Every structure is written in structure tokens, then in C-alpha cells.
Amino acid sequence: MSPALAIALKVVHIAGIIAWVGGMLAGLCAAVAAKTAPEASRTHVVTAARSALVTVATPGLLMAWAAGLWIALAGWDSYRTMGWLHAKITIALVLAAVHGMALARMRKAASGGELKASLLTALLGASLLLALGAVTLVVAQPF
User: Fold this and answer.
1) pLDDT for 63 beyond 90
2) Dist. CA 94–CA 127, nearest whole Å
3) Count of H-run helices and E-run strands, the chain
4) How many CB atoms lie within 10 A of CB 115?
5) DSSP summary character for residue 55
6) How far is CA 95 from the centre of its chain?
7) What is the Cα–Cα distance from 43 to 15, expressed in whole angstroms?
8) What's the gap between Cα 43 and its chain centre?
9) Read out DSSP for 73-138?
10) Residues 33-57: tens digit of each pLDDT
């Protein structure tokens, strides 16, 4: 892989992560805050929060995964022995599952279902902890 392509892929990967995690955190914060909104506007707030996941976080997820897998496969000879990378990929898989759970819960709430703020708060906390864990692995590369 050329150095220019490697840099471009890393930029796309990091930009995707920022959009993915940032969009998730923003959308979940707004959805949790909707619990205290007047009932008449609660559905609108949750719909807007879900929109953040659909229009910002989901494309970010796709960018992060596509570029990240391309980088990993191109350098697999070196990466295959890096335990921290395997742990980071596992965290990213769990974070993607949390993303899907948040989308599903917000879709139900936006359609008039019950807004389960405690579940959304748990998903928000899990997203933050998972993202911090992934960043720690990338920076420290402990194993």
C-alpha cells in the first residue's frame, strides 16, 4: 500500500470513528434528555436524536469499519500478532451492537412507544466506556 493511501485510510478511519461515536453520544444524550421534555414534544426530540444516529453515526460506523478493515487486511502480516488490535476490534463489534440497540430503542420510542431512559442511559454509559477502552488500547498498545 502506498504511503498516501495509508494516510488517507487512517484519516477516513479516524473521521468515521469521530462521527460514529460522537453521533451516538449526542443522539443518546438527547434521547435521555427527552424523558424530561413535555410529552407533546418528547416524540419530536427522540425522532431528532434518532436522526443523529441515522445520518451521522451510522455513516461514521461504515466509514470506520471499511477503512479499518482495509488497513488491517493490508498489513495483516504485522497486525495478526498484535493482541491489542484484536481486543480493539472486539470492542468495536460490541460498540456496533450497542449502536444497533440504540437505533432500535429510539425507533420504538419515536413511534410512540415507551421511552426507556434508563436503558438509553445504560447504552450511553456503555458507549462512552467502550470508546475509552478502544482509545486506551490504541494509545497504550499494552499487548
Assistant:
1) yes
2) 9
3) 6, 0
4) 23
5) I
6) 6
7) 30
8) 23
9) HHTHHHHTT-HHHHHHHHHHHHHHHHHHHHHHHHHHHHTT----HHHHHHHHHHHHHHHHHHHHHH
10) 998 988 888 999 999 999 999 999 9
- 67/7 Cα distance (integer angstroms): 11
CA dist 124 and 37 (Å) reads: 18
Q: Please, which residues have CB within 8 angstroms of residue 25's CB and are 6 or more apart in sequence?
A: 124, 127, 128
Q: What pTM was computed for the model?
A: 0.92
Return the CA Rg of the chain: 17
* Segment 123-136, tens digit of pLDDT: 999 999 999 999 99
What values do phi and psi take at 2, rounded to 5?
-70, 155
Q: Is 112 helix (H, G, I), strand (E, B) or coil?
A: coil
8-state DSSP, 34: G
Cell of 26: 449526542
